[in-house]
Each structure stands twice: as C-alpha cells, then as structure tokens.
Amino acid sequence: MRQFPLFGVLLLVPALALVLLTGCPGTPPPPATSPPVKTGGDKTDAGKAEKITAPTDGTVTGVVHFDGEVPKAVVEAAIANHKTDKEKCMAGGGNHILEQKWLVSAKGGVANVVISLAPAEGKEYDVSAELKAKWEKRQFILDQPFCAYTPHVVTLYAGVQPLLVKNTAAFPHNVKINGGIKNGDFDSGNMAPNSELKPMTFKHDTKPITMQCSLHGWMTGKIVTFQHPYFATTKEDGSFEILDVPSGVELRVFMWHESFEKAKQVGTVTAKAGAKTSIESDKLKIK
Fold first, then answer.
1. What are the two backbone dihedrals, phi and then psi, of residue 116, each rounded to the nearest 5 degrees?
2. 61: phi then psi, degrees, rounded to nearest 5
3. Is 141 exposed, middle or buried (0-12, 13-18, 19+ CB in 10 A)?
C-alpha cells in the first residue's frame, strides 16, 4: 500500500480538506482551488493537551435533512449532451445522472455531508494502536460504475485508512488528483473496465485537493481527511454512523457540505457507553 506522496488524495479535520480534479480538452475548467478550510479541534498545542482516555465503546448516529424547499434534482447536462458515452452514462439512472452537489432524498435527507466529532478545546484524542489497526482494514471504496464518482465525497483517516479506487463501468474512466505540496499530483491514466488501483493512503493536509475524470470532465469528487477516526459521510438518505466513539466525553459536532465555505459547529454530543446516541435532528439541518 502506498502513500499519496506517490499519488494521492486528501485529508480534512475538524481541519478539513476536500478534493476535486483537473479537466480534459473540450470540458469546462475545474473550479478554482478554494482557501484552506478549518474547523478546529483536530490538534492542540503539543504538550498542553489533555488526552481523552475514555473507553471507545460509543456509537453516534443521525440524519441530515434539508431545511426549506428541497433543491430540484437536475440531470447533468454534460451527460445528456455527450456524443460518445451518453447511453452508457444514462444507463445508471438515479443519482448517477444528476448534478452531484445537491443529492436530496424524497424525505429530505442530504447525501455527501461530512459529520465529524472534535474534542473540546484543550483536549485531544489518544487513538489506540488497536483502533488504528481496525481502520487500516476499513478500505474506503471509490467507484465509477457509470459517469459519477460514487460516493461524491470521500472521507479518510489520514495515513491510516486506505482508499481503493475502482472502475466497475463497462467503459474506461480516469482519476486525476492535484494533491499539492504534501501529497503531489496523481494521474491514474485510463482505467479499463472492471479494474482497480492499488490501495493508497494520504498525508493530512488542510488545503482542498481536486479530483476529476479527464475523460468525462463533469465527474468531480472531494476527499476530506482527518487526523482521527471520528467522522462519517452521509448516505443517500442523509443518515450516518460514527463508530468507536469515546463514551462519557462531550465532543463538538461539525458539519460540512461542499456549499459551505468552511465546516460549521452545530452542537455537542456525549456518546453513551455501549449504545447508540443519536444527535438531535434540529442540529442536523442544512440549506
């Protein structure tokens, strides 16, 4: 398994980082790189932080809902107008053919929202070797079954959790990543149908990184990395689950969506020992 300094992706926090890519001839240029995004709470001054040593036997859950009139689902125009791969791309239906920024379910659940838990100021996580070993085995799979990255937003435990990139489509795709100074640039070249890349891990970086398919320029994605394992990306119904959370300790809850300039603290949560603790729905609204 290699690290992103060879070819990479990115990392976030509560010191959050995103990923998009560079375009191909004939497609619009990718959005300009945005400034570093910070949420705080990922690290404190060396030697001054109090270690959190509580048992990691809690689970935090919740559902992110859209607050207000739900954005209308919009078919990605570049897919509908593509001369070569239109039929293959449209075959995916559902979210695969939509603009990816706002994917909202019929019940208002919002996909691709990043939820993270940060210690209180003056405290920091003390992640055990055993828990890190678990995360080394929790590969995050990024697939390209039609003409959208699935999922659109990737979250990773920096330096620990591997990212496995697949192409299960019946036609070629590509992944290009601008990893900046810390992680370098990476171009997969054309990925043949039903192929995958060697799993990779990435160094933490607070700067946004871009990911894009140069064969289908509308295909973009973001990778958010953390220096701890207490985060999740919401599913299509807006739900999320964060495992192995220190119980009995008040933690700050941060929420990020690509429409945000930076992550927002939306409240706090204290995980119950050996049980699931749900974050109140009124804290998890987005618009």
1. -135, 155
2. -130, 170
3. middle
Write out pLDDT tens, residues 171-201.
999 999 877 788 888 899 999 999 999 999 9
CA torsion 88-222-220-241 (nearest 10°) is 30
- Output DSSP code: residue 264: E
Determine the topology of domain 2-286 in CATH.
Immunoglobulin-like (2.60.40)
Write the CB contacts of 158 (distance below 8 Å, at least 6 apart in sequence).
11, 201, 202, 203, 204, 225, 226, 227
Domain boundaries, the chain: 2-286
Whole-model pTM: value is 0.85
- For the record, the structure tokens of 269 come out as 């949560």
Query: E strands within 8-108?
Result: 50-52, 58-63, 65-66
Amino acid at 112: N
Question: 42-78, pLDDT tens digit by residue?
Answer: 554 556 899 999 999 999 999 999 999 998 899 999 9
CA–CA separation, 64 and 235 (whole Å)? 9
| Cα–Cα–Cα angle for 244, 249, 252, rounded to 5 degrees | 90
Q: Are 64 and 234 spatial neighbours (Cβ–Cβ below 8 Å)?
A: yes
